[in-house]
Amino acid sequence: MTASPSKSLETFPNPNPDRDFVIRMRMPEFTCLCPKTGQPDFGTLYLEYIPERLCVELKSLKLYVWSFRDEGAFHEAVTNRILDDLVRATAPRFMRLTGDFGVRGGIFTHVVAEHRAAGWQPAPAVILPPGEWIKQ
């Protein structure tokens, strides 16, 4: 095996820093351990962010997510920790991390954590009516 888990998050320059655009990622293979029983927990992480100057590099993100495989963590704590680490690495305008965890004790857990840069405001939503070119 040539790759190993890592807590290091690499970045690259935002290719369009003058524009708000959304990057969405789905990480369906997140695993950590239940801090009470030591049994594996499985979840999907959903990352959405609007970069400022930096974007997170995908291979480093994959290895970072992999690094939690043998760690005990409550769902709420690990979701917030990952968000904090990503914000520290990229300093985005906006970032949301959603942890959608598999059943534990008959309960599914869905944790949403957000970060907004000081002073950043999203642009108003644009809702376009269907055009005549759309056949219904």
From TrEMBL:
The active site is at C34, D41. One of its GO terms (molecular function) is preQ1 synthase activity. Signal peptide: none annotated. InterPro entries: GTP-CH-I_C/QueF (IPR043133), NADPH_dep_7-cyano-7-deazaG_red (IPR050084), QueF (IPR029500), QueF_type1 (IPR016856). One of its GO terms (biological process) is tRNA queuosine(34) biosynthetic process. The keyword Metal-binding does not apply. Its EC number is 1.7.1.13. Keywords: Cytoplasm, NADP, Oxidoreductase, Queuosine biosynthesis. Substrate binds at V56, E57, L58, H75, E76. It holds the Pfam family QueF. Coiled coil: none annotated. One of its GO terms (cellular component) is cytoplasm. Transmembrane segments: none annotated. It is found in: Cytoplasm. The keyword NADP applies. It comes from the Bacteria. HAMAP family: QueF_type1. Belongs to the GTP cyclohydrolase I family. QueF type 1 subfamily. Catalyzes the NADPH-dependent reduction of 7-cyano-7-deazaguanine (preQ0) to 7-aminomethyl-7-deazaguanine (preQ1). This is NADPH-dependent 7-cyano-7-deazaguanine reductase. It comes from Panacagrimonas perspica.
